[in-house]
What we know:
Blueprint: H1 2-12, H2 17-20, H3 31-50, H4 54-57, H5 66-76, H6 83-86
Amino acid sequence: MWKEQMVSIMKSQLIDDHVNEEPPKEEAMEATSYQSWKKDNTLIKSWIRGSLTDDVLHLITRLNTAREGICDELTAMHKPVSDDDKVN
Length: 88
C-alpha cells in the first residue's frame, strides 16, 4: 500500500521518473533542467522521510536519490524490489 501511495503522488506531479530511471548526469542536461530535477528529487525524499517510522528512517538518511530510498526502504520492510522492477 505504501508503494502505491508514493507512486501515485509522484505520478500526479509528473515526477515518477525519479524512481523509474537512473538519475541524470549533470553535464548531460541544461543547468536549469538539472536544478529542477534536483529540486523535485529533494521533494520526493522529503515525502518518503515524512512517511517513515523512526525505526526505518535512520536506514536511509544518507541516500542520494528517491529511487534508491524507495528500493532500500522496501527491502528494509522485507519487500525487496527485483532488479527488473527497479528499471520499469
